[in-house]
Description:
- By secondary structure, the protein is α+β, with helices and mostly antiparallel strands.
- Helices cover 18% and strands 29% of the residues.
- It has a six-stranded mixed β-sheet, sandwiched between helices. A five-stranded antiparallel β-sheet has the order 5-4-8-2-29, with no helix packed on it. A five-stranded mixed β-sheet has the order 9-25-24-28-22, with no helix packed on it.
Amino acid sequence: MPQRIxxxxxxxxxxxxxxxxxxxxxxxxxxxxxxxxxxPRLTESARAANVAWTPPEPGYxxxxxxxxxxxxxxxxxxxxxxxxxxxxxxxxxxxxxxWRGEEMAIQVLGEMDGRFDPGDAILFYGxxxxxLFYDGLYFNNDYTGDAVYWLSYGGLxxxxxxxxNGAPASPQAQRFPHKxxxxxxxxxxPNNPPNEEDHWYWQKIxxxxxxxxSRDYTFIAHNIATDNMTGTLTVKLVSTIGKDKVHQLTLxxxxxxxxxxKGDWVGDTLFxxxxxxxxxxxxxGINTITVEITNDPNSGGSVDQVYVNWVEVTYxxxxxxxxxxxxxxxxxxxxxxxxxxxxxxxxxxxxxVSDITNVKRxxxxxxxxxxxxxxxxxxxxxxxxxxxxxxxxxxARIEAVNYPSSAYAPNDLLDTSLxxxxxxxxxxxxxxxAEQLAQHRSSEYHVALVDVQRVYDQFNGGMMSAEAIRDxxxxxxxxxxxxxxxxxxxxxxxxxxxxxSGNGAPTFIPVFLQxxxxxxxxxxxxNRFVALESDxxxxxxxxxxxxxxxxxxxxxxxQNMVDKTIGYENATCDPMPQYVLFVADDEASSLYWDLxxxxxxxxxxxxxxxxxxxPDPYVPVKKYLGKDCNYSPDGDAxxxxxxYQQIVDWINGNNTLLVSxxxxxxxxxxxxxxxxxxxxxxxxxxxxDYCKMPVTLNQGCxxxxxxxxxxxxVSEVGVRKxxxxxxxxxxxxxxxxxxxHQYVAKGFFLALFNQGIQQxxxxxxxxxxxxxxxxxYTTELEGFLFLGDPALxxxxxxTSPLGDANSSIAxxxxxxxxxxxxxxxxxxxxxxxxxxxxxFIPTGAPYATDVTSPWIDPDPNALGDPNHSYYYVxxxxxxxxxxxxxxxxxxxxxSLVPGQ
Length: 900
């Protein structure tokens, strides 16, 4: 059965972790040590500038799926007619094909008369994405194994295959190395290995006591060479057994031992074993590779456990066609005569396919025989495909390229005049719902509504990848006329994007998978989509835009989330939501109660105590397990029914702004007593009044793990619920530590209640920055996420006195001018300024103090500086030194773009 090898009881892991670090909790967490950040995986699309392109019009995607072999693919009259091309009127000389933005050399039969007739065809060389990945020619096959090629017509004549002279004259080659890659993906191990590697595995092998266990892997070989050569066997594995375990691994080829070396592999690590295998060990027909482990009970216990990732074999083949085709390689690239036998007819053509976009046709080969037939020709090609028309292939499908239309949808994502500050990327299944939200947002923002397939088309040649989305956002950030601020992804995603497990759960918007922290392993790191620019303080971890996701799977779920977002923001509440519900677990003695109390009652600046995390007029309400409900004298509640019901009753009956939870969590519930569950949010919350729909701020582990293909996270259920539940969820996708999570909450509260930042996505990033600045925590920047619209304005009772609507930046002659409306209760206005940091935190001495509106920057370089951009925050203070900040002005607010 397909399986995901992850802890089924997360509390076991959490309690073990707790036992380890709680011994030194007061010393360790008073001086927290930052977790080591994992570098983002290097992608070809990020490296190759020419991947970003504007697809041709008209355009057609020609798809070779993961099950189809390498070969010569034919697009004939009937296939193109069925795909909707005007085959009777087009000029075949204008046919053009592309691979990832680069034009391919193709062959068009019958094009010379300028007509495309029955019997004519386009021939192109193609491979699926898995084949290209295994040969190192594509960066990632996590998302799909299908390769997308592009077809267009009209305009200039297209690129054609060069013809090279292959008249045979060189010494004849006798054999060539034939590589076979064997891999299946059944088991998902997100934390093995704990780095950026493939986490899908084929089979588990377990050996007990002093015994051995093995698995067999087979492949078929025909026409193998019989001379004295040496092949290779390579096996990639991982172990899940402790760090001191010594693994004894033995490898066999058809029963012949080729590798047996105890001690090479120690611990729960990745291991690649490579062995030489004499050619005589291989045989015609079925070949069996055996992977065997033997347990040493004196090393690491009574069991050894490993998982096989893949097996790769290289043996020597002879030049005999199979089913009228042969792919052969010449790694040295030396000129040699190639003689290939075994064809069923004499219409044989060799192709140099060393470069997928510059295929060459080899001419003047000599064909002999009367059946079977042979061909002799000279070539120095690294890779050859020799074939007859009998072996031509047909692609899986041909798709006409079209995109849903909208007044908010740009026609070309490479248009540098685009000025959107809010980007909504959606799967087209949710286009109607996305357009409704785009219209709502257009009252405050310039909106770009983008079909995610257009992103794949323009930034990865039509193939799904999270890196393509990141590359698009990076392009928009650096090249659009305005740098976008908010990004919403509308569509769910899973870690099983290729449906290896067979459950059928689709991926509408892919997950950016990244190893986060030291325990979780690979998980969703949503900020990686928008961490675009290296920062001297935060490295490459700080988001440069504010991102959220609607984890929806149906149009109805999308409609639910759109309706709640718009309804919440448009609702007039009387009274305004003023309650912040604090829920805490009873584990770890009183630690979680204390952490929650610090948030509910504490200040950020003791002993001055001017910055309260939850200031007036907001009212903390506490539901602490084992203390305020399900009371237990020793603080260890036996159950959680009372807390569960009190939480439900409070939310259903009161205008609650936020629900803050501190404690253990899993993706399905809060606390082992299950005081907050999927059933609670799905069935028991009846808070249909928008003023009673809170945002949750979860400080437990893994509660936002939305990427499971089978099991929805509790926060997902809450935000997707129709007409009630949650309007948004600040949550996480990883196993972390309570102090790091609490720091995020502190920064979130300060942003929301003290800095006047209402937008949930922006407040979350402030919380993540706070966790890094105050505690050195990097995993919070990687593993926290927002399920909801990042531009969602949380209904604070006193809205920001200096928001977008009542403060502005403008050009005044050759200077920068800031203007703002008077703020009730404010007695002083200060200006903070930063250079080249649009997200700076206004601290220290103001740039200008006690100023009035309008205020003009006296710095003559603040406007038109070719080397720097300048950013401003207006701070309003009252007599008690309480303050609220405006939005960041400058390139961030897009009313003016100084220095650009």
